[in-house]
Fold this sequence. Notes:
The protein is mainly α. The protein has helices spanning 7-17, 24-41, 49-55, 61-67, 76-86, and strands at 56-59, 89-92, 98-101. The chain has one domain (7-101). It contains five helices and three strands. A three-stranded antiparallel β-sheet has the order 1-3-2. α1 crosses α2 (24-41). The longest helix has 18 residues, at 24-41.
Amino acid sequence: MKQTINIHQFKDAFMSIRPDNFSYEALEILFEYFEQLEDDIGEDIELDVIAICCDWSESTPDEIREYYDPIDVDSNSDIEDYLAEQTQLAGVTSTGNFVYMSF
Length: 103
């Protein structure tokens, strides 16, 4: 049995289980990413909040530099390129946080 959800229900699911994992803007980026992925593969994706929280991250540029030391990046565009090469990059928030699949 499947249920179609909208962006508000998607955010509510995270806020009820893991409220501190992602910002609202990061959740919007993830929602759009998964909707596009569904269109690309032609299959519905089951919402599993815990799995998404384990597989995906939202990090500042400084956190990326710290977590993935010793990457040689000087700018946010370098970090974006690095993440796009190493993993799945869902997007960047207006505050400059990266939303990406953890690796």
